[in-house]
Specification:
This protein folds into 2 domains: 45 residues; 46 residues. Helices cover 81% and strands 0% of the residues. The protein has 4 helices and no strands. Helix 1 packs antiparallel against helix 2 and helix 3 packs antiparallel against helix 4. It is elongated and about 60 Å long.
């Protein structure tokens, strides 16, 4: 799922390059730890709780009367639903 997001590679590259140590093993461990931390933050910011975001947008949609704003919200809902589909597909592949 993460690999389908354009910014994922950037997060990994920047985290990897941020750690330097003369000892190669220490450097590798530091880079892995930095990547894990950065990806956890990135995941929360990019994906958050997908279902909660969809519910918020659906509730917001009910109160909006301006057509252009409704289209914008529908587009956001569609984006979050795609993320949910990607997430569900990833989880199904991990189970099987």
């Amino acid at each position: 799922m993460w690999a389908m997001e354009e910014t994922c590679n950037t997060v990994i590259s920047e985290a990897w390059q941020a750690v330097e140590h003369p000892n190669p093993l220490t450097s590798l461990l530091g880079r892995i730890q930095k990547c894990v931390g950065e990806l956890m933050v990135w995941n929360k910011n990019v994906f958050g709780n997908v279902q909660v975001e969809i519910k918020k947008l659906e509730a917001k949609l009910k109160s909006v009367k301006i057509v252009a704003k409704r289209r914008e919200i529908l587009c956001e809902i569609s984006t979050w639903r795609r993320k949910k589909d990607i997430l569900c597909g990833s989880e199904r592949r991990m189970i099987t």
